[in-house]
Amino acid sequence: MKRTKSGMFIAFAALTVFFLFMPIASAGQITDNLKQVVDKVLTILKDPANAAPEKKVERNKLIHTAASGTFDWEEMAKRTLGPHWRDLTSEQQKQFIDIFVDFLERTYISKIDLFLQEAKDFTSKNISYLQETIEQEHYALVETKILLNDKELPLNYKLINKNGSWVVYDLTIEGVGIVANYRTQFNEILANGSFATLINKLKAKDGIELPGKKTEQQAKSGQ
Prior knowledge:
This protein is of the alpha+beta class. It has a single domain, classed as Nuclear Transport Factor 2, Chain: A (Roll). It is built from 8 helices and 5 strands, in the order H-H-H-H-H-E-E-E-E-E-H-H-H. It has helices spanning 5-17, 30-46, 56-67, 73-81, 90-118, 178-192, 195-204, 216-221, and strands at residues 127-135, 139-148, 151-162, 165-173, 176-177. Strands 1-2-3-4-5 form a 5-stranded antiparallel sheet. A hairpin with a 2-residue loop joins strand 3 and strand 4 (165-173). Helix 1 crosses helix 5 (90-118) and helix 4 crosses helix 6. The longest helix has 29 residues, at 90-118. The protein is globular and about 45 Å long.
């Protein structure tokens, strides 16, 4: 069965989210370091030695270790919650960061597995790094594209310079931002419920959509 464009979008979003969680060096090395970590994560994901069901927990820890470090979870959390972030206590803010990270990992690892089962020939050669731009000294953009079944899918990484270090805080896939997508959904949940409601939905993965064409207009309006 042919994958629909929307289906490809969601699978691609799943594959790329973990490429956010990576250490970034100085501005001149952003793209080089990005490529190194992407290659490392892909190697872990595609290694047959990690494919057995009993290796799942160990493999996920390897991915987490390889990808975590200097990604700014607090920055992403603030941006996804928008003005609601200021309404939370420090304890609630920490709880949200922990639950949100866990939600992303649980959601996207399963999607990545399904994607790689279908796209068995996907390698780092399918990823092209196009351009790196520094904006206003504090922001950077790394533009890439993914080749899938003769289709080109644009992926842009957004970074911010904090205390001399460049960290990823968002990415856009075919023009739809990860942060804006979740901000739109979280705002709606909080408008009709409580912080506890949002936490419970994240834990259960209840009614929260991955970035895709269904939420594109909503995401754009939330940017």
